[in-house]
Prior knowledge:
This protein is α+β, with helices and mostly antiparallel strands. The protein is built from 8 helices and 9 strands. The strands form 2 sheets. A 7-stranded mixed sheet has the order 3-9-8-7-4-5-6, sandwiched between helices. Strand 1 and strand 2 form a beta hairpin. Helix 2 packs across helix 3, helix 2 packs across helix 4 and helix 6 runs parallel beside helix 7. About 3% of the residues have low confidence.
Amino acid sequence: MKLPSDDPARVIDCLKxxxxxxxxxxVYIALLKVASATASGIHEIxxxxxxxxxxxxxxxxxxxxxxxxxxxxxxxxAFPPExxxxxxxxxxxxxxxxxxxxxxxxxxxxxxxxxxTEELIWNIYGIExxxxxxxxxxxxxxxxxRIIAHSQIISPDVRQxxxxxADHASVEIITPYWAGDxxxxxxxxxxxxxxxxxxxxxxxxxxxxxGGVCIIDxxxxxxxxxxxxxxxxxxxxESEGFIRFFVRYYNLIFDRVKKTA
Length: 261
């Protein structure tokens, strides 16, 4: 069966992405070509095996894409594409909303029971992936964001998110350079600290010396090292011991910065 398209396979794939099987897509397209057809006619037009036609028709009826006459033999007709696609999209949206609500409930139940004893430590590789995780963590802060980071870690997107979150949580930032006004928000403190000079013989590895740590609400920590697109690495955990160690590390740095500010 030839489709009225430069790429027939793509039409089938698009319908499959909307929830149809290959046979359902072929039968629906076949019925668009005629005013109506019997099961035998559908088989001839679509190429779908005769034994499968009635099963496919029943599935299309359930999805509201075809109608059936009360004549003998029964004849079937396709609803216009505008109506059919709208029904498929509505079905997808209902299913997506149901999944979103159900999965969100599962996630809320898990996070509400979190006791801080989770010992897993997650690896993150590459500077862009670290920045994405950093933005995700910052977005979920409820009370406070405490971050020490090389200025290259604090990209415009990260900086914007930190500034936005200052309306909802206290934000402390220690960085060698901040691209913007300081202070930015009432609830936001930015401390700029000059990096120590690196000996010339260590220049080859200086990118690996950039990094930092981000602590969210005292409940989760992301620590990262390196500035390379590929070789930068981060560790994320909600482990009690992991958090306690880096909170102490942060407090040590923060106390020294405040004395020199």
